[in-house]
Amino acid sequence: MIRVKVPATSANLGPGFDSMGLCLGLYNEIEIEETEGGVEIVQDGFNYKNCPIERNLLYKAMKAVFDECGKSPKGLKIKIESNIPATRGLGSSAACIIGGMVGANAMYGLLGPNDILSLATKMERHPDNVTPCLMGGFTVSCFDGERVTYSKMNLGDEISLAVIYPDSKLSTGKARTTLPYKVSHRDAAYNAAHSALLVSAIAGKKYNLLAEAMKDKLHQPYRMKMIPDMEEIFKIYKEAGAYGAYLSGSGPTLAAIIPTKEKESFSKEVCEKLSGKNYNFDIFGFDNMGTYVRKL
Questions:
Q1: Is 17 within 8 Å of 192 (Cβ atoms)?
Q2: Is the pLDDT of residue 208 over 90?
Q3: Mean pLDDT, the chain, as a whole number?
Q4: Which CATH number, 1.10.10.10, 3.30.230.10, 3.40.50.2000, 3.30.1360.70, labels domain 2-153+287-295?
Q5: What confidence tens digit (pLDDT) does each residue in 11-23 have?
Q6: Phi and psi at residue 125, to the nearest 5°
Q7: Which class for 4: exposed (0-12), middle (13-18), buried (19 or more C-beta within 10 A)?
Q8: Alpha-carbon distance values, 234 to 31, 98, 273 (Å)
Q9: How does 193-209 read in b/e, with b if 16+ C-beta sit within 10 Å?
Q10: Count of CA atoms in the C-beta half-sphere (13 A) of 259
Q11: Where are the domains of the chain?
């Protein structure tokens, strides 16, 4: 039997559109057992969804690895314990893809981490979530259509990530329909500068720079109309003492990097101001390990 622990992620961080991501201390757990025939998938937890096997994203990811390796098991029993909320901007699809690929590769051991990362990015179409999901920490990635080039930094426990999300879902595909096909040179230059500042601020632990560094003109202004109370929640985050706030992935999760030592008072103030609104609130630490697999 193979057991995989695969983390949630938060991507974009404002200006780092389709390129930056963080690995979070929230996990799906997957057990994979080879059988004598057929495919059985048992799923439980936050995102239980009964769908045909051929449409199950985790199984599709496993099959991509089997095809790449030129090998296939006789049968499979897959058990999925889901704790990452789906279609909320916390990397649930990346967790399915990476979890499935790492688990499948553990059966035959033919692919290296970079091979898995490139294969996962081809399926996910951008590396911002799959890279931190596999590698952990804070990552910056680019994809040339075949290979992913990335840089990773470990994150300290002096910072945490606060998240607020409604019960409603927002698919990445739907969120992307709000984005323009072209942007101005001025907006592109604005994001390039803020992306550079963001990386420098995190690397140097100059968290007081994040409020400015997380500003964006490529996607957040366009997606704002699909995210209820986005400006109000950013204001609440700031008043409660967050270093900086951003739309996680394509939303609807709204995230903020906060000082860990202030998380109790931060949580109290935010929850008081959200009283009466239908939102979920949580605070997560960061994971520098990424996806973990072992054979039992």
A1: no
A2: yes
A3: 93
A4: 3.30.230.10
A5: 999 999 999 999 9
A6: 85, -10
A7: buried
A8: 38, 31, 12
A9: ebbebbbebbeeeebeb
A10: 11
A11: 2-153+287-295, 159-284
Fold of 159-284: Alpha-Beta Plaits (3.30.70)
The alpha-helical segments, DSSP class H, found in 177-229 are 185-203, 210-213, 220-223
Residue 227 three-state SS: coil
Contacts of 90 (CB under 8 A, 6+ apart): 8, 9, 10, 24, 26, 84, 163, 165, 248, 249, 253
Q: Which of 17, 14, 91, 88 is nearest to 246 (CA)?
A: 14
Q: How far apart are CA 62 and CA 166, in angstroms?
A: 31
**Which residue in this structure is represented by tokens 């019960």?**
167
CA–CA gap between residue 124 and residue 14 (Å, rounded): 20
Q: Residue 56 corresponds to which tokens in the numbers above?
A: 């199950």
How large is the average pLDDT for residues 225-249? 93
Residue 144: exposure state from Cβ atoms within 10 A (0-12, 13-18, ≥19): exposed
Confidence (pLDDT) at 204: 97
Shared fold status for 2-153+287-295 and 159-284: no
